[in-house]
């Protein structure tokens, strides 16, 4: 049987830090100087290979790059980098995140910014790890205080019908 694979995500709240995702020993990073954006990595759950890796800043539309992966067979890692509070998810993008399992952490940062305004807490770090279309197999994290958010999960092997695939799970 295959072993769990560690998944570590650093999502930067502060512009002086960059985002990094480490899947086992495979490390992916964004440059530090990119701000106010979202980053999505799509993993094949059978072998954890990266199928898509892109950034975007539109907070109201579901990125078209996701279309080939919306059938529930892929793991999505979404993280924000130095995301301005005025660019929190809304519209179709917000509904997509909720459908894929966003809940408490997303609602929490929305409430903080609605109550205290962007002048108090100007940037946020948010991450959502989800198996797309899977009845909310998902994990989410946020921070409005620390300069980076660190999420630690594992990709747990599950064998069904002789076929091993990986799903995200807490450590």
Task: Explain this structure.
The structure is a single chain. The chain is of the alpha+beta class. It has one domain. It is 15% helix and 44% strand. It has 2 helices and 11 strands; from the N terminus they run βββββββααββββ. A hairpin with a 7-residue loop joins strand 1 and strand 2 (20-23). It is globular, with a radius of gyration of 15 Å.
Task: Give the termini distance in whole angstroms.
Answer: 18 Å
> What percent of the residues sit in helical stretches (DSSP H or I)?
10-25%
What is the N-to-C succession of helices and strands? EEEEEEEHHEEEE
Main sheet summary = 6 strands, antiparallel
Q: Tell me the total number of β-strands.
A: 11
Rounded to an integer in angstroms, the radius of gyration calculated over CA atoms is: 15 Å
Count up the domains.
Answer: 1
Number of helical elements = 2
SSE blueprint and pairings:
Layout: E1 5-12, E2 20-23, E3 26-29, E4 37-43, E5 50-56, E6 75-81, E7 83-84, H1 91-99, H2 104-120, E8 123-131, E9 138-143, E10 148-160, E11 163-170
Antiparallel strand pairs: 1-2, 1-10, 2-3, 4-5, 4-6, 6-8, 7-8, 8-9, 10-11
Give a concise summary.
The chain is of the alpha+beta class. 15% of the residues lie in helices and 44% in strands. The longest helix is centred in the middle third of the chain and has 17 residues, at 104-120.
Keywords:
6-stranded antiparallel beta sheet, alpha+beta, 5-stranded antiparallel beta sheet, 11 strands, 171 residues, globular, 15% helix
